[in-house]
Amino acid sequence: MKNQDELHKEGWIQYVALPPPCLDDNTADVDRLTSQLKRQLNAASIDMERSVMVSLPHVLRKSNFNVRCILFGYDHRYQLLDVQPSNKCLPVYGLAIDLGTTRVVFRLLDLCNHSKITETTIDNPQGEIAPDVLARIHYTDQPGGLEHLQKLIIDGINQQIQNICIANGIITDQIFCMSIAGNTCMTHLFLGFPPQAIIREPYIPVVNRHIILPPIDLGLIINPQGRVFVFPNIGSYFGGDLISGILALDMHHQTEISIMVDVGTNAEVVLGNKDWMIACAGAAGPALESGVSKIGMTAGPGAIERIKQDNQLFTWQTIDNKKPVGICGSGFIDLAAVLFQSGMLDIRGKFVPDQCQDRLLIIDDIMHFLVVPDDRSATGKDLTISQIDIDSLIRSKAAMYTILTTITQSVGIDLTDVSVFYVAGTFGAYIDPSSAITIGMIPDLPRSRYQSVGNTSIEGASRVLLSRKDIESVSDIQNHITYMELNVNQEFMNRFSAAKFIPHTDTKLFPSVKRPLIGSMYRSGEK
Amino acid sequence: MKNQDELHKEGWIQYVALPPPCLDDNTADVDRLTSQLKRQLNAASIDMERSVMVSLPHVLRKSNFNVRCILFGYDHRYQLLDVQPSNKCLPVYGLAIDLGTTRVVFRLLDLCNHSKITETTIDNPQGEIAPDVLARIHYTDQPGGLEHLQKLIIDGINQQIQNICIANGIITDQIFCMSIAGNTCMTHLFLGFPPQAIIREPYIPVVNRHIILPPIDLGLIINPQGRVFVFPNIGSYFGGDLISGILALDMHHQTEISIMVDVGTNAEVVLGNKDWMIACAGAAGPALESGVSKIGMTAGPGAIERIKQDNQLFTWQTIDNKKPVGICGSGFIDLAAVLFQSGMLDIRGKFVPDQCQDRLLIIDDIMHFLVVPDDRSATGKDLTISQIDIDSLIRSKAAMYTILTTITQSVGIDLTDVSVFYVAGTFGAYIDPSSAITIGMIPDLPRSRYQSVGNTSIEGASRVLLSRKDIESVSDIQNHITYMELNVNQEFMNRFSAAKFIPHTDTKLFPSVKRPLIGSMYRSGEK
């Protein structure tokens, strides 16, 4: 636990005791304060709005030149947001936001003692227009579309700020800074930037670099002298949420090579250490987020999130222990692993009727595997997974593995050289690495090297509000990363084809994956 | 005459031809443009408002990535104000303002070809509240006083901008930048900064440094993406108008030592060269601006601005050749010189009745010298100067000379070491150096060393709108100057007493001043 002095050393609140002016030292108020702050912070410049200057003479004289300064900034260029008498200090808050396509996470931080006050989540209100990135970008093609989407997210954020303030008994003026980490498209829509070029070759965002702007510029209701920090991106498919994640994981400070994978419809991967970093992103398909199968669903009450093999017994586990409604991504991966290991799926990912026995149903000429019979499901219907669903999962897992081998081979290292394998994102948090290894989605590393790290985006967004050092790291990270465009060439396709087997055509790559246990019984139960 | 290329090299308009993005070069639009601009301008940073970013993708693609950029900034940190297709260029204007206590001068500049479009002047509308600095500052003590004074000047400027735009057929959006050079108090009132501490020991302005701010922050109606540059000051009594003047005269680049004097109620003096600079300011009293004598007036139609001795004939010259109404500062100095040289004033500055003969009238027990008899004046009344008026002038000229000797002696040089003596200010423009030397107001240097330089403030304000190098010089100048507080101690008072003679007790200091020509006839005539 750091003490108050240490917190101030790295944070945005600075106590300043100035020598009062005299005939021999008649520097003006603003210059007197900023030159002292520049020394304290090792800053290149201290800017402030005119309104802060207007009130400065009174504040300095009322406080006998002992003041507390609230700052925010970047690249050693700081904005002085407010100056208060040292002996009369109100709380100072910062608001970190993880701006997801589906969900928006808010974390309120006390910038005085560096504590977390609350964390809340809302659905991204743009979801009412279109659920995914692509559809939202298309929506901006119509007149007023961009403005509408921007208004939805700004209004949604403002509403939630209100809710947070009311719930915690604070006023919006006490929130001095905000940080926003989101993917490139969500960030564009938030800023009102036309996002069309993001999805059209050659995939160009309006801006890569970070942006700091006054809240009023976006109509955000926090302290009007405050500042909003928007994370930079590396490109259309590697957004500020990932840079924020790298910051949260301190990958840029580590000597050992680590890899971070954000698993979703897009697989975003970054590999490296303090000396180098390489990133790429590729389509993994919706299977990993369970956007394909009929019974696929995002994690929610009644979703089968875990399927295990206990001796000969297969058991499932649902969220909130509700009767099963469907299956979410982590459950689907577990299922495929279990089916493979029980011999019910062959190495091509095809159902083996002899092994599946009466679990295999033919519906509309397509083989379906009965996961939960109608009498045990919440819907009163059979929950089944079709061969098509499995094929889709196989393609997704093959894409993921191919991306991982491509990025490591591009820098001449082997996947086994990776010391830590971070699985990020809310979905990633639920994946059982053993199952993912079994189906050959991720490399066969010792399980201890896998770390499920949850929402690193909100974590990194919080860190820039608490530490000057961390905000400076953002540009280091951004400048540090080489973005590798995934060329879907013959070599890539060869790798992809090889990865479409379970776990892989080259089984030497997956020594720990057990061969199918032909003859095990499929029995199900709730845990 | 510089050609277009050279103008662009030093100016605020930059033409940029960018390589269009491709898969191998997918830098975002903003970053693509700013990195090129940083190279072209050797800039540390290029910032822009969100609104500029929003329109950038369209402008870049419409122009095939050939654009013209309008920038403004300081300290190698530039603001990108607008981006336009290179082949579709509208005029770009800048507006320089000399913000005087009495008069406000506007100069509209074409930033494309660096030409002056127009120059106009208005009375400072704050004059309706109070004529001088001190009274305006006192006015801010009452509630709403500061806001009222600020509104008056902002409204006045906006009105004049409207007038200028209409007269020149341009729109306000084409004015992208403004520069403001004024004394410290006028600058404070313009910015809405409380000015009270300026006039109270230890005389502390709110701010010394320059300020760049968006026009909307002050309610100024030019292009809303534009910027307003406010000159810095060195202290309460050495304002941005003088820093602007130093810039205009290039004093900071010269090897030879020069001095600039702005003559008015306050005498502001700066002395130095490219290696060092020292400044001071002191009260000279209102006599030099003709604020004392009954017939004193500021320069205007009918003011006697020049009095000369042609052989035995004394002639006067009035502004616009109107019948005389009064006498302005330069005329008053001429008159004193002529009276002294004709023996009608003695070395103490007292009228010599024997020499003045019937020109000397006694009014209210005080001696008055008849300058213009009633039958030749525009008022139909005698225009006279009293002994009190002359005494006041003597004190003012003595103060001026004392300030000049004090500042030169403080750096161990002699007044004769000064290679160029700039007399600045609108009033200064009319002073005849010979007369000023005769009465001992300024040192007895070869006349060729005197240069009347007129309004250097508007000149310097214009230069920062035309040249990046010049705007960078502003901070060099500001950091360069040592401000010397004038200590009115015994030594100063001794010097002052010695200087209260005409031309001085030590006549060796004024070898060129002729002794009185006793017996010359005073005759007057219009020229």
Find the structural class of chain A using helix and strand composition.
Answer: alpha/beta
Number of helices of chain A: 15
Largest interface comes to: A-B, 46 and 45 residues
- Tell me, rounded to a whole number, the average pLDDT of chain A: 91
List unreliable stretches of 5+ residues of chain A: 519-527
The strands making up the biggest β-sheet of chain A line up spatially as 7-6-5-8-10-9
Main sheet record of chain A: 6 strands, mixed
How much helicity do the residues of chain A have?
Answer: 25-40%
Globular, elongated, flat, extended or rod-shaped: what is the shape of chain A? elongated
Oligomer: homodimer
Number of strands of chain A: 22
Task: Round the Cα radius of gyration of chain A to an integer and report it.
Answer: 26 Å
From the N-terminal CA to the C-terminal CA of chain A, the straight-line distance is: 39 Å
Strand content of chain A: 15-25%
